[in-house]
Amino acid sequence: MSELARPGGEDWEQMNIDDAVVKIWLPDSLDDCLSLLSERFEQSKSDLARNGLMVHLYGRYVFEQLVANRMWKLTRRVEKELEVRYNMQGMPALDDAPRPAFIKAYGKSTRDLKVWMPRRLKDGLSKLAIESGVTLSEYMRRALAAYYLGRTLTDPLKG
User: Fold this and answer.
1) Are 26 and 93 in contact (CB under 8 A)?
2) What is the pTM of this model?
3) Structural domain range at position 79
4) What is the number of structural domains in the chain?
5) Mean pLDDT over all residues of the chain?
6) Residue 70, in any domain of the structure
């Protein structure tokens, strides 16, 4: 197979520098999926999330071009898993609150994941989150659920 052409018209040189970080809260089903894939492909969960978000924003073809031209590394750094800590004191009871379709399908987001990524990727995802009317973490959670778990339970991108 011949090497793919460099993606034209844009400066991709800074896409291998992870100068931004986002903390995403994940439902158990998505975290379990990332854990299993992490073991199978020998990549961290953060690597898998970053790669999935890159494909989500720029498409598989650009992603593969960047990988082939060594402008995007599939594996970056090994991170320690963060211990989940939260305080429910003073929080309203969730039992009576209406449950959005995403929570009904995937469960509450109780596991956190720190994802290091290029600033350009974070900025692009932030724009999409604003257009969708959700927080960046919520948008990323939904994009990753669609990418790794599919859209058969419910469409995570629609809410």
Assistant:
1) no
2) 0.75
3) 17-83+100-149
4) 1
5) 79
6) yes
Is 120 contained in some domain? yes
* Span 105-141, pLDDT tens digits: 555 666 889 999 999 999 999 999 999 999 999 999 9
> Per the domain annotation, does 119 fall within a domain?
yes
DSSP string, the chain: -PPPPPPTTS--GGGG---EEEEEEEEHHHHHHHHHHHHHHT--HHHHHHHHHHHHHH-HHHHHHHHHTTSS-S-----PPPPP----TTPPPSSSSPPPHHHHHH--EEEEEEEEE-HHHHHHHHHHHHHHTS-HHHHHHHHHHHHHH-SSS--TTT-
Q: Residue 49's closest CA among 71, 67, 31?
A: 31
Residue type present at position 118: P
Q: Is pLDDT of 32 > 50?
A: yes
CB 142 within 8 A of CB 102: yes
Half-sphere exposure of 63 (CA within 13 A, CB side): 13
**Is 2 domain-assigned?**
no
